[in-house]
Amino acid sequence: MLHILFFLSLLFYASNGAVQDFCVADLTAPEGPAGYSCKKPAKVTVDDFVFSLGTVGNTSNIIKAAVTPAFATQFPGVNGLGISMARLDLAPDGVVPMHTHPGATEVLIVAQGTICTGFISSANSVYLATLKQGDIMVYPRGLLHFQINSGKTPALAFVSFSSANPGLQILDFALFANNLPSALVEKTTFLDDAQVKKLKAVLGGSG
Questions:
Q1: For residues 130-148, b (16+ Cβ closer than 10 Å) or e, as one string?
Q2: What is the residue range of 124's domain?
Q3: 115 and 182, same domain (yes or no)
Q4: C-alpha–C-alpha distance, residues 53 and 72, integer Å
Q5: Would the pLDDT of 107 be above 90?
Q6: Are 121 and 137 in a shared domain?
C-alpha cells in the first residue's frame, strides 16, 4: 500500500510540475468548451495581462445601460485562470434585465450611485437589496438576476466572475428577440398575443 501511495505522489508532483504559469488566449484559434488555445510563450507580452475598464460605456440604448466585458475574448491574459471582470454603467432609470451566467458566479461592487439588484433562487425565493457605494453582492452561478439604477444620477459598478467565459443569457431577449413563434411564447408565458407582438417589435424579434 505504501508503494502505491508513493507512486501516486510522484505522479501528482510530476503532473503539477508540467502545469504552465498561464495560458494567454490565442484569439486566432477557435474557442472551445475549455476556452481558447494558448498563445506561444514567445509571443506573450505584458499587454496580454493589462486591460482598461476606465472608459464610460455608451448608455444611449433601450435599456440605458452598458456592460464593458473583460472576458478572455477581450482580455487574453485571463484565459484558463477561472476569473474575469466587467464594467457596468447605468444611466438614470437604466436596467440590466433578468439574465443568467451559466458558467460563473458573479460578485458586484458599486463604485458610484445606487443600484437596486437581486436574484431568484431555484426555489423561487427572492433576494433583493439596494446597494450604495462600496456595497457588494454575490449572485450564485446560473441564477436569474438583475440590476436597476434606483438613483437620479449615473451609477457605476464593477463585477467579477469565477470564469474567464461566464456566458450570458438575457431573459427578455431569449423570449422576444428571436424567431420563436409567438404562439409558443404565449403558451409558455401566459402573455396574450398583443403583448408578445409588442415586445417582439421592440426587441427585434419575429414570428
A1: ebeeeeebebebeebbbbb
A2: 46-167
A3: no
A4: 14
A5: yes
A6: yes
pLDDT confidence of 41, banded at 50, 70, 90?
Answer: very high
Please check whether residue 85 is in contact with residue 119, taking contact to mean a CB–CB distance below 8 angstroms. Answer: no
| Cβ proximity of 203 and 177 under 8 Å | yes
Length of the chain counted residue by residue: 207
Q: Judge whether 95 lies within some domain.
A: yes
Q: Is residue 138 part of a domain?
A: yes
What percent of the chain is modeled with pLDDT above 90? 84
Q: Given a cut of 60, is residue 5 above it in pLDDT?
A: no
CATH of the domain at 96: 2.60.120.10
Compute the average pLDDT of residues 179-204: 92
Q: Which helix (H) or strand (E) covers residue 201, if one does?
A: helix 193-203
Residue type, 166: P
For β-strands 136-139 and 106-112, DSSP reports them as: antiparallel
CB-based contact 175:150 (threshold 8 Å): no
| pLDDT digits 0-9 by tens, 143-157 | 999 999 999 999 999
